[in-house]
Every structure is written in C-alpha cells, then in structure tokens.
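Support request from a user on the community tier.

User writes: "When I paste my structure tokens into the form, the page sometimes reloads and wipes my input. The last time it worked, I copied everything first. Here is what I submitted, just in case something in the input itself triggers the reload:"
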C-alpha cells in the first residue's frame, strides 16, 4: 500500500478530520491538566526526585544515584536539569511530562493517518487522548510519557522516510531511536521492532 504523507500541513486530512484531532488534543490537555498544579506525586515520582536532589550535575553523577533506577538514565538526567532550573513544585515537575504526552498524540495521528487513513487515526488518537490509563501515565513524571513521545516521533520519522526517502526524516528517526534507548526499555524495544525490518 502507498503511504499518504501530507507535505502541505503538519496535520493531514480533511478540514473536519483536522478539527476532530484538534478537539481530541484539547480534551487530552483538559484531562491531563485536571487538578494541576496540585496533582499528587506517586511513590515512584518521589523516589525518582530524591535521586535528583543534588547541588550540582557533577555531584549527581558522582553519587551514582541514577544507577539505582531500573530505567535508562535519560529521564533522570532530564529531571536533574529541569529541577535545577524550575524547582521541585508539583506543577513544575509534571508540566513537561503532560506536554510530552499530548504532543505524542499529534505524532500518533500523523503516522496512523499515513498508514491507515483518517477514521483509524482519529479513533486511535481519541482513545489514547481519553483513556484513564494514558491520562494517568501522562501526568506522572517518570519515563512513560517521554517514551510515548519518542516512539511516536520514531514512527512518524520512519513513515515519512519510507514515503519520501528524505534524508532529514531518516536523521529525525535516528535521533528518535536514540532517545527511545535513553528513556525506557520498552521504548527501546519498540524502536528495535520498528527499525529491524529496515536494517
């Protein structure tokens, strides 16, 4: 089957399809920001934040506290920098993860549209925008929202590369695959499964 990749706009589809996906994304934002900035931390988040509370980056690396986490160190080091810049307030810590989980929906829609068309892309996006599971994990400052974003970026980059053979899409996919490896084991596994048939 021939991939349909839009070159005119970021969001492919008819006007009504684009409006529908924008509504899904707006609903996703409302659901994920519900109760913000007072969304309580989970134990997993508190555990992760205790390991990034260092006076400097070198002190954090010297302590080796990121090694105790079973996940790859990407999100740990992101939080290390982020909390030094913006502090440890609930809202400050959770905001980038919420934004990542919503941004991932746009890339999900783009690659789903290319492979399966508008109706499937809209249903998939609407489901992941509103399901309690994805809403909750989109609010947690751990690797899950970032893993969703990096795998969606990889799928979109690979889709665009397959459709156009554009080198910049291949570079974008390679960067996304590297980020998958740094963020979560399952994101790395997803990246390997997506890239293996192309090797």
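"...and here is what came back when it finally went through:"
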């Amino acid at each position: 089957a021939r991939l349909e990749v839009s070159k005119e706009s970021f969001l492919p589809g008819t006007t009504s399809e684009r409006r529908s996906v924008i509504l899904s994304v707006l609903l996703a934002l409302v659901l994920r920001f519900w109760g913000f900035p007072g969304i309580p931390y989970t134990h997993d988040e508190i555990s992760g934040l205790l390991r990034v509370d260092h006076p400097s980056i070198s002190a954090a690396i010297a302590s080796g506290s990121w090694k105790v986490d079973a996940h790859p160190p990407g999100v740990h080091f992101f939080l290390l920098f982020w909390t030094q810049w913006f502090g440890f307030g609930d809202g400050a810590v959770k905001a980038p993860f919420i934004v990542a989980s919503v941004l991932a929906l746009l890339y999900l829609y783009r690659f789903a549209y290319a492979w399966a068309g508008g109706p499937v892309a809209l249903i998939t996006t609407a489901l992941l925008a509103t399901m309690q599971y994805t809403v909750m994990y989109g609010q947690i400052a751990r690797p899950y929202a970032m893993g969703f974003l990096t795998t969606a970026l990889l799928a979109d980059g690979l889709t665009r590369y397959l459709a156009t053979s554009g080198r910049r899409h291949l570079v974008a996919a390679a960067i996304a695959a590297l980020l998958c490896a740094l963020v979560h084991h399952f994101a790395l596994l997803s990246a390997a499964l997506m890239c293996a048939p192309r090797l």
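Agent notes: The reload is a front-end session timeout and is unrelated to the input. DSSP finds ten helices and no strands in the chain. The chain has a mean pLDDT of 90. Escalated to web team.
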